[in-house]
Specification:
The complex is a heterodimer of chains A (273) and B (415). With 273 residues, chain A is mostly helical. Chain A has 8 helices and no strands. The chains are: A mainly alpha (273), B alpha/beta (415). The interface between A and B is medium-sized, with 13 and 22 residues.
Chain lengths: 273, 415
C-alpha cells in the first residue's frame, strides 16, 4: 500500500515538473512570437509617411546624445587594452603588433558589444520607461483613440533610429579606442608611433570592418525591440502594476538586452568566421 | 424610434473568470446625451472602450448605424473611428508635450493639413474653450479643470460626431463640476455631436442627459429618459439613486430628497397633535432658461433659488429640497397659509432685488450684451395635513402656482 502511494506521489511530482517545464517553454515561445510580430510591425511602419521627423528626433536622442559617453568609454577601453597588451606582448618581444592587437580587438569584438551595452543602459532603459509610463497613464490608448497607430508612432522611429545610430556609435567607439591605445602604448609607454598606426592600417581588413558593422545592426534590432516591447506591454506584467510595473519592465529590458547581445555576439561571430 | 447610432446586442466581456459585461443590450441615439451611471466596477469604462474599439466583445455584437462592427470593411472602420473622440477620466494628455503640441498631434498625424492650417485650427479651438493663454504650457502647469478643458479641446479638434466622456467631472469641486457639465452641453449644441457620458454626479447629470442608462451587475438595468426613470418605481433605480444621494444637493446646497423626507416625517409625526404646516413650491422654467440663456445661466438661476430658499426659510424653521430638476419644495412648520404667503412675498422681493441680477453676466456670455431677457420664479402655497405624502403636497401647491418674482434685463435689445 505504502509503495503504491509513494509511486503515485512520485508520478504526480514528475507530472508537475513536466507541466511547469512545458508552461515555461510555451510562455517563452509565446513571448518570442509576440516580439517577432511586434518587431515586424514596427519595421514595416518605418517606411510609412510622416515618419522622417520622428526618426531624426530619435537619432538625436539615441545617437547624438549617446556619442560623448560612448567615446569616453571607448577611449578608456582602448587605454586599458593598450596597457594590458603592451605588458603581454613585451613578454613575447612583439610590442610592434600592439596597434594590430588593439584595433582588431576593438573593431571585431569590444566596439560593437560595449557600445550596444552602453546604449542599452543609456537609451534602451529610457525607451522602456518612457513607453511604459505612456502605457500606464493611458496615453497609448489615447493615441489609439486619435487614430494614431501607437507602434508606428512610438516604436518604429526608435527601431529605425537604433539601426542608424548603433553602427555610427560603434565607429566612434572604435576610433576613440584606437586613440586610447595610442595614448598608453605610444605616449605613455614609448612604442613607436609610426609602427602603431602602420600595424593598425595593415592588419584591419574590409572583412573585419564588415563584421564590426553587421554586429551593431543586429544589436540595434535586438535592443530596440526588447526595450520597446517591455515598455509597451508593461501593463500585462503580473508581478506589479503601475510605476512598479514600469520599474520591473526597465530592469527586464536592460538585463534581457545585455544577455541577448552576448548570445547574438557569439552567433554572429560564428557565422562571420 | 429611429435606428440607433450605436447599439449593443447581447454584448458580453470577461476578464479571466470575471464577467464584466453580461449580455448588455443598449441603444445610443444620434444628437443625444446618453449618460451611463452605475456603481464603481460595473463595467462603465469597459462599455465605453468597446464603442471606440479599444476592447472587443467576447460575445454579442456592436452595431454602428445598424451595421455590425465585425462586418465593417477596413475603410469603414477607419471612417467610423475618425468620427469618434474619447475624453479619458484622467485626461491622458501627453505630459511631455505643450498644450499646442497635444492638440496638433492628431491633426499632424491623421490629416494632410499644412502647418499654418493646423496652427489656426488649434488656436481657434483653444479660443472656443477660453484656453488661448495655455498654448505654450505643459499639462502639469495647468489646474485640474483646465486640463479637463484641454482634453476636451483635443477631443474636439478633429471635429468628431461622437464624443465619449469617461467621468468628466471626477475629482472636481461642485462649482467646476457644474461648469464642466454645462460646457459639455454648450459645446454639444455648438458642435452638434452625440455624447456618451459616464458620470456619478446625480442628480445634476440628469439635467443635461436625454437618455440615462443604469448599469447594474453587468447588465443595462434601465435605459430611458430622466422622466421615465423618475416615474418607474423600479427597485434598481430606487436603490441606485438612494445609494448615490448624499445628505445635501450639491448644486443648490438644499437637503437631499432622502434627508428632506426624514425631516418631513419627523416634523409631522413628533407632536401628538400636528402643528399648522404650510408648504411652498417654487419653480423656474429650466428648459426655457437653458435654451434662451445657456446652461451656465440656467444652472445659476437654480443655484440662486436654492441659496435664497435656504437662507430665507431656514431662519423661520423651514426646510427645503429640490423635487425635480427645477422645483424646490419648502415646508414651513408652525405657519399658516396666510403667514406663508407673507414669507414668500418677502422672499420674492429679496430675490428680485439682489439675486437675479447675478444672472446677467453669465446670460450675456451666451446671448450677447445687446439682447434682453426676463426670468420668472413661480410659487404655489398650500396647507399640509399629516395624512398627505410629499407627492400630494407638490400636486396641491402646483395648482396654486403664480409668478412671484420677475427679473427683467432690458438693454434695449430684443427679448
Amino acid at each position: 500500500m505504502k509503495t503504491a502511494e509513494t509511486s503515485v506521489r512520485n508520478s504526480n511530482r514528475l507530472t508537475l515538473l513536466f507541466a511547469r517545464m512545458g508552461g515555461a517553454v510555451l510562455s517563452l515561445l509565446g513571448n518570442f512570437g509576440a516580439v517577432a510580430i511586434f518587431i515586424s510591425l514596427a519595421f514595416v511602419n518605418i517606411f510609412r509617411r510622416k515618419q522622417l521627423l520622428d526618426i531624426v528626433n530619435q537619432v538625436y536622442y539615441i545617437g547624438a546624445k549617446s556619442s560623448l559617453i560612448v567615446m569616453l568609454v571607448g577611449l578608456f577601453t582602448g587605454m586599458v587594452l593598450g596597457l594590458q597588451l603592451f605588458y603581454t606582448l613585451v613578454k613575447f618581444g612583439s610590442v610592434g603588433v600592439l596597434g594590430s592587437a588593439v584595433s582588431l580587438s576593438l573593431i571585431r569584438e569590444l566596439g560593437p558589444v560595449l557600445t550596444a551595452i552602453m546604449v542599452t543602459a543609456r537609451a534602451g532603459s529610457a525607451m522602456t520607461a518612457e513607453i511604459g509610463i505612456l502605457r500606464i497613464s493611458e496615453q497609448i490608448d489615447a493615441l489609439y483613440t486619435m487614430r494614431i497607430d501607437p507602434v508606428r508612432y512610438l516604436v518604429s522611429p526608435r527601431v529605425a533610429a537604433s539601426i542608424i545610430s548603433f553602427p555610427l556609435l560603434t565607429a566612434f567607439f572604435d576610433l576613440s579606442g584606437i586613440v586610447g591605445g595610442y595614448l598608453t602604448g605610444v605616449a605613455l609607454l614609448g612604442t613607436n608611433a609610426g609602427t602603431y598606426f602602420y600595424r593598425v592600417q595593415s592588419s584591419v581588413e574590409v572583412v573585419d570592418l564588415r563584421g564590426g558593422f553587421v554586429k551593431p545592426l543586429v544589436f540595434a534590432v535586438i535592443v530596440s525591440s526588447i526595450c520597446c516591447f517591455q515598455g509597451y506591454f508593461c501593463h500585462m506584467r503580473t508581478q506589479g502594476y503601475g510605476a512598479k510595473a514600469v520599474g520591473l519592465a526597465t530592469i527586464s529590458a536592460v538585463v534581457i538586452s545585455c544577455v541577448m547581445i552576448l548570445i547574438a555576439d557569439y552567433v554572429v561571430t560564428s557565422f562571420l568566421m | 424610434m429611429d435606428t440607433p447610432l450605436i447599439e449593443f446586442r447581447d454584448v458580453t466581456k470577461r476578464f479571466g473568470d470575471k464577467t464584466v459585461l453580461d449580455e448588455v443590450n443598449l441603444r445610443i441615439y444620434e444628437n443625444q446625451v446618453t449618460t451611463i451611471i452605475g456603481k464603481s466596477g460595473t463595467g462603465k469604462s469597459v462599455l465605453l472602450k468597446h464603442i471606440i474599439g479599444l476592447l472587443e466583445p467576447d460575445e454579442g455584437t456592436i452595431l454602428y448605424q445598424g451595421k455590425p462592427f465585425h462586418a465593417m470593411r477596413k475603410s469603414e472602420r477607419v471612417e467610423y473611428r475618425s468620427r469618434v473622440a474619447y475624453l479619458f477620466q484622467n485626461n491622458a494628455l501627453f505630459d511631455s508635450m505643450t498644450v499646442f503640441e497635444n492638440m496638433a498631434l492628431p491633426l499632424r498625424k491623421t490629416t494632410n493639413l499644412g502647418t499654418k492650417e493646423i496652427e489656426n485650427k488649434v488656436k481657434k479651438r483653444l479660443e472656443d474653450l477660453e484656453l488661448s493663454d495655455t498654448l505654450e504650457k505643459y499639462p502639469s502647469e495647468l489646474s485640474g479643470g483646465m486640463q479637463k478643458r484641454v482634453a476636451l479641446a483635443r477631443a474636439l479638434v478633429t471635429e468628431p460626431t461622437i464624443v465619449l466622456f469617461d467621468e468628466p467631472t471626477t475629482g472636481q469641486d461642485p462649482i467646476r463640476k457644474n461648469m464642466i457639465l454645462s460646457m459639455i452641453v454648450h459645446y454639444r449644441r455648438k458642435f452638434r455631436f452625440t455624447a456618451v457620458m459616464i458620470s456619478h454626479d446625480i442628480p445634476d447629470v440628469f439635467f443635461i442627459s436625454d437618455r440615462i442608462v443604469i448599469l447594474w451587475e453587468g447588465k443595462a438595468g434601465f435605459q430611458g429618459t430622466y422622466e421615465e426613470a423618475m416615474r418607474l418605481k423600479h427597485p434598481i433605480i430606487d436603490e441606485f439613486l438612494r445609494s448615490l444621494e448624499g445628505f445635501q444637493d450639491e448644486l443648490t446646497g438644499l437637503l437631499s430628497r432622502e434627508a428632506f423626507r426624514v425631516q418631513y416625517g419627523a416634523t409631522l409625526g413628533r407632536a401628538a397633535e400636528p402643528p399648522a404646516v404650510s408648504a411652498a413650491l417654487f419653480s423656474v422654467e429650466f428648459d426655457l432658461l437653458h435654451d434662451a440663456l445657456g446652461p451656465l445661466a440656467a444652472l445659476e438661476v437654480l443655484r440662486l433659488l436654492g441659496e435664497y430658499t435656504n437662507r430665507h426659510f431656514q431662519s423661520v424653521g423651514g426646510f427645503s429640497a429640490r423635487h425635480s430638476r427645477d422645483q424646490v419644495l419648502t415646508i414651513l412648520p408652525h405657519t399658516s397659509p396666510g403667514e406663508a404667503e407673507q414669507l414668500v412675498a418677502d422672499f420674492a422681493r429679496g430675490l428680485e432685488q439682489e439675486g437675479l441680477a447675478r444672472i446677467q453676466s453669465s446670460a450675456h456670455t451666451t446671448i450677447g450684451a445687446q439682447a434682453s431677457f426676463e426670468i420668472y420664479i413661480r410659487a404655489g402655497i398650500t396647507e399640509v395635513s399629516s395624512t398627505e405624502d410629499i407627492e400630494e403636497i407638490i400636486e396641491k401647491a402646483r395648482a396654486h402656482q403664480q409668478i412671484v418674482a420677475t427679473y427683467r434685463c432690458d438693454t434695449g435689445g430684443s427679448a
